[in-house]
Specification:
The structure holds 2 protein chains of 2 kinds. Chain A is mostly helical. Helix content of chain A is 53%, strand content 7%. In chain A, strands 1-3-2 form a 3-stranded antiparallel beta sheet. Chain B is globular and about 60 Å long. Chain B has helices at residues 13-23, 32-38, 46-59, 96-103, 108-116, 119-133, 139-154; strands spanning 30-31, 63-67, 77-80, 83-86, 88-94. The chains are: A mainly alpha, B alpha+beta.
């Protein structure tokens, strides 16, 4: 099969394969934003449907509770929001742990231990700090544990108060 | 949970660009596979998922894809549908705009101005930025940055 000779009678199979692979890659690239739009659109539909159901009184009843199993807080009708004070406490711990170095990666559990704050409070605080571009997701080894790092420039931004 | 794709909703462009820098070699080139691996994409999708996201960033001018050259240093091309196009490798590098997006920051005076702006002034600033961005090379990046920040803060229905 080398150089495309063989069963295809002189055709440059390798070149044609490479060309086809390029075409496939291009098509796949074009799919990404469309998939993003579909996901976002589905989420919007769900939210609108829930609003409509609530308005017309046709909301589906919640599934029956399994005895002995407590529903998650979000299913009990409220969502716990982490306080601004806690977010700042976690941010201070981030700076302390990393010395503001954007190359130092850390995990939420390490940070929780360092800050003396619960894992859940740290996880939620980190979400807020990502939104504020103070920390970033720097890795996700094995797709399980998220590693964070300080956003470049974020530590200085806090220092000079700007 | 391992990812199968790298969506804007999960990772901002800036986060992706910084990971490219993290895994890059001394010349700034990073393999798509390494980017996917670092971001926890399942092995079967690693190269493809990262390449898809990076392809979009390349279209917006934030990264460039390696243009392969032969053993004599001549750039290689492939002919597709009668058109000659560069033969690309699987390595990517941040462009100047990408570096700015990843590492750039406002000057202190600019930050103060925006921090102090009330709602009405913020509206005027947003209008001005939108008008200026229309003619900018990084217009799409500006739109994506806005969209990403907005979705994260306000939810997807707000866009």
């Amino acid at each position: 099969m080398e150089n495309g000779s063989g069963p295809h009678g002189g055709l440059d199979v390798a070149a044609i394969s490479a060309s086809l692979q390029e075409l496939i890659a291009t098509e796949q690239e074009q799919l990404v934003p469309l998939e993003e739009q579909v996901i976002e659109s589905r989420e919007r539909i769900k939210r609108l449907q829930r609003s409509l159901d609530a308005l017309t009184g046709t909301a589906r009843p919640l599934p029956a509770r399994t005895p002995g199993r407590r529903p998650a807080p979000s299913q009990r009708g409220y969502v716990w929001k982490v306080s601004e004070k806690k977010i700042e406490q976690v941010w201070a711990a981030v700076l302390d742990l990393t010395a503001g170095d954007p190359d130092v990666r850390f995990r939420a559990s390490t940070l929780a231990e360092h800050a003396g704050v619960s894992n859940e409070a740290v996880r939620r605080s980190l979400q807020h700090l990502r939104e504020r571009e103070r920390v970033r997701v720097a890795g996700h080894p094995g797709g399980r544990i998220i590693e964070y790092a300080v956003m470049p420039g974020a530590a200085e931004r806090t220092d000079d108060g700007t | 949970m391992a990812l199968e794709s790298l969506r804007l909703l999960d990772l901002s462009d800036r986060e992706v660009l910084l990971v490219v820098r993290d895994v890059a070699d001394g010349d700034g080139w990073a393999w798509a596979y390494d980017v996917g691996e670092r971001l926890g994409v399942v092995e079967s999708h690693r190269r493809r998922a990262a390449a898809q996201r990076l392809s979009w960033l390349a279209r917006y001018g934030a990264v460039e894809r390696e243009h392969l050259s032969d053993e004599h240093g001549n750039l290689m091309y492939v002919t597709r549908q009668g058109t000659q196009r560069p033969k690309y490798g699987q390595r990517w590098r941040l462009t100047d705009i990408g570096e700015l997006l990843a590492l750039g920051k406002l000057r202190a005076a600019e930050s103060r101005l925006l921090d102090d702006a009330d709602e009405a002034r913020m509206l005027l600033i947003a209008r001005h930025v939108a008008a200026q961005a229309r003619h900018s090379a990084g217009a799409k990046l500006i739109e994506r940055e806005w969209r990403h920040q907005w979705i994260r803060t306000n939810g997807s229905s707000a866009t």
